[in-house]
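Table S2 (continued). Query chain:
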Amino acid sequence: MFSNFKIGVRLIAGFLLVAGISAVVGAVGISNAAKLNEMADNLYQRELMGLSYIKEANINLIYIGRARSNYLLATSQAEREKHLASMRKSSATLKDYVEKASPLFISEQSKEILRNFSKVWDAYQVDLEKVVATASQQKLMERDEAFTRDLDAMRAKADQLDEMLTELTINKEKRAKAASEEAASIYESGRGLMTAAIGGGLLMGLALGFLISRSVTRPISRAVEVADRLAEGDLTVQIEARGSDEAAQLLRSMQTMVSKLSQVVSEVNSGAESLAGASEEVSATAQALSQAASEQAAGVEQTSASLEQITASIAQNTENAKVTDGMATKSSAEATEGGEAVKSTVSAMKQIAQKIGIIDDIAYQTNLLALNAAIEAARA
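Corresponding output:
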């Protein structure tokens, strides 16, 4: 499947895939960080602040109860007015905190409780007004000075404790708000850093993929070019290899191969030139042999003609010898000495005839040799 794509395309695709995966991982990380930041913000803005508002409302309900008790225990009309104002203020503050907290409760159960709270609160306010109206018609409390002093001291301590607890609550809320703002700041800076890192990593991956792909494909392309020129018979190609990676080693090996091929071709050319010279010498020798064979054939023909003449002469001599032998036979009786001479002559003639037969065989063999030489010369 991948073998149909170029190496550079595969490398770049691989780096793009890795960069894409990194981008996806980074995007998921940023998304999760955003969710965590949102949850932290919700934890502060909704849960913690909702809890704080309800807590403050509850405290003000306690303030109302305390002011009501103080109203009932008041020893003067001015003290009653003071505690009545405190009840009015705490009631308004409680209602304000409940209104602030209501949007922060999203569950149906909480919403139902808030609806019931509003109904009960309205009924509570009616009953409170009745209590205040009834208490205002009663006589003021009579207390001695020591009891009043102790009661005022206790109330002062209670107010001081309330202020301390309120201050602690406010400090904790401030710390929670600061932590929420710090978490938001960390998220913003982290998101920017992760975005920059993802972008930089993507660009670096692309650049690195391009450079690595180029460093691999350029030597291979050069090797393909060299192979094509070698296939065309060009042995003058020069190869420059840089580095020590596999591609550079391949180019060096191809340069060595080209050098060896050039050396082999040079040796083959030298051998071919030597072979051409030897062929010329063989051709000249063959021509000389052919000419010599032709001359020999002509000589053989002349020799054959001479032998035929000799044969004819010998035949004539033989015939003459026969005639002479007859004459010698007839005259043998008459001339014994002449007969002996004739016998010697006949014997000599026979020897001559035998030698002529040998010469005839030699001529025949010579004709065969000349014919073979002529055939070989013709083939050459």
